[in-house]
């Protein structure tokens, strides 16, 4: 019967030297573009193919009983590929026809990747070197429930240590109680305060790291027996950091060094130079970087910044960062850095570019767009014989088509008026809502340069939310497929 190769496809075990013959099963609307892909792909991979077009419009709606009834397999076929969204037990088809059946990718445009002609096997991104401290900012202003909820969210996002951020100039009497609560909930905890009472209470209840230590608190912090973060008295005063390091070494206090990352406009580039200098002068010491001064104080999406900062840290062997999620545009900064630290670790370890490895941080736009093209869209429009609307987003236009016509343009409102005027019956409220929702997604995709596929969620990287398609929703409700493609 053959076996599954590295690409996931089934390889025939024969020694005849003949190319395997694969039957690709599809619906009427995908036939044109599928044949175009196979015409180029087959000689590259080294297989022969035939295409079976069953009497359905959309290939995704194929299921095992229908295929068993309608499919005729030509002689000499080694195995059969079905659309990736085909429902049912394929063993039934294998037993019935006597040859293997296998699901392909959900989108036939992904067939080159499936057959190993574009892309490579998934990379192992489980490894990383950089520890994430996630700060609960202004913790004294939050309830215990809010603190626990934030700590859990940060841990789920990839944080290794929860930093309890106190309020400068105030002394919080519940510091120790809250730290103990977090420790008992299974969190590793650091304390971010210069107040002696807060720090001592935190340490006595399980805090393992103190942020931060300079000449203002060096005498008493160095006697608490836990690790501290050494910082300069002033960000630009690197010599003061060297003196603090000397004192910490003399007292056998464990420490990591943070030369302080400055915001853009306040010495950002110079502060980067201090990290390079710290690594030169302290080649064997742990270094930390507080990345919030860039992500929180720069009015731009943070994923790209987190990737660059992770790369700097990886190359300089900076083994910990302090991340924050205070301002709205940085609300997923911890998860972004978690993805970033894995990506740069893989890239540097394998001496490869951080490209075509994974796409979880490509959030605003998509890595690539798959276009049917003008000819294929017109071909689809000419074939449609039912009233269900198909929606596409290509060539800076929305394309809507059904048996009554083919409309394209940039204004969803105008398109709706046009195809409603041509409709053989009035679009009901449920269907109108569905069409409006899909056209909104399609226009968003056009605006941002994203791939749009009807009834599928837009790809937002690691923030992508799965959707229940209109067809699946109506099936769950026990209703017919009155919305979307059929």
From TrEMBL:
Every Pterin-binding domain range: 122-345
Gene3D superfamilies cross-referenced by the UniProt entry: Dihydropteroate synthase-like
PROSITE patterns to which the protein is assigned, alphabetical: PTERIN_BINDING
Coiled coil feature spans: none
Transmembrane parts of this sequence: none
GO biological process entries: pteridine-containing compound metabolic process
Signal peptide: none
Superkingdom of this protein's organism: Bacteria
Protein name (Swiss-Prot/TrEMBL): Pterin binding enzyme
């Amino acid at each position: 019967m053959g076996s599954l190769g590295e690409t996931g496809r089934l390889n025939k075990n024969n020694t005849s030297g003949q190319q395997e013959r694969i039957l690709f099963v599809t619906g009427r609307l995908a036939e044109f573009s599928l044949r175009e892909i196979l015409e180029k792909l087959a000689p590259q991979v080294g297989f022969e193919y035939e295409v079976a077009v069953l009497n359905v419009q959309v290939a995704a709606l194929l299921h095992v009983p229908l295929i068993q009834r309608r499919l005729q397999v030509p002689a000499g076929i080694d195995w059969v590929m079905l659309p990736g969204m085909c429902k049912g037990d394929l063993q039934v088809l294998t037993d019935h026809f006597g040859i293997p059946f296998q699901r392909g990718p959900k989108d036939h445009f992904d067939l080159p990747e499936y057959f190993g002609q574009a892309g490579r096997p998934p990379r192992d991104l489980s490894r990383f070197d950089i520890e994430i401290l996630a700060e609960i900012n202004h913790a004294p202003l939050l309830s215990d429930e809010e603190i626990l909820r934030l700590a859990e969210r940060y841990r789920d996002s990839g944080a290794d240590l929860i930093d309890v951020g106190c309020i400068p100039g105030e002394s919080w009497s519940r510091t120790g109680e809250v730290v103990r609560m977090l420790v008992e909930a299974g969190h590793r905890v650091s304390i971010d305060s210069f107040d002696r009472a807060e720090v001592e209470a935190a340490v006595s209840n399980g805090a393992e790291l103190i942020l931060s230590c300079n000449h203002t608190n060096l005498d008493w912090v160095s006697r608490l027996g836990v690790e501290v973060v050494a910082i300069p008295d002033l960000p630009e005063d690197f010599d003061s950091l060297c003196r603090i390091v000397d004192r910490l070494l003399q007292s056998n206090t464990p420490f990591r060094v943070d030369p302080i990352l400055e915001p853009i406009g306040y010495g950002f580039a110079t502060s980067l130079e201090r990290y390079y200098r710290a690594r030169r002068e302290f080649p064997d010491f742990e270094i930390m970087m507080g990345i919030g001064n860039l992500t929180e104080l720069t009015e731009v999406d943070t994923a790209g910044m987190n990737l660059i900062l992770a790369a700097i840290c990886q190359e300089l062997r900076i083994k910990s960062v302090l991340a924050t999620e205070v301002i709205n545009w940085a609300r997923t900064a911890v998860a972004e850095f978690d993805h970033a630290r894995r990506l740069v670790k893989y890239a540097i370890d394998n001496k490869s570019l951080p490209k075509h490895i994974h796409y979880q941080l490509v959030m605003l736009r998509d890595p690539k767009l798959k276009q049917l093209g003008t000819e294929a869209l017109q071909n689809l429009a000419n074939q449609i014989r039912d009233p269900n609307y198909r929606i596409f987003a290509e060539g800076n236009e929305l394309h809507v088509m059904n048996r009554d016509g083919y409309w394209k343009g940039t204004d969803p409102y105008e398109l709706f008026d046009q195809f409603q005027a041509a409709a053989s019956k009035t679009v009901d409220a449920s269907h109108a809502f569905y069409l409006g929702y899909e056209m909104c997604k399609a226009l968003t995709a056009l605006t941002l340069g994203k791939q749009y596929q009807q009834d599928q969620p837009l790809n937002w990287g690691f923030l992508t939310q799965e959707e229940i398609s209109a067809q699946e929703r109506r099936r769950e409700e026990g209703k017919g497929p009155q919305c979307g493609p059929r």
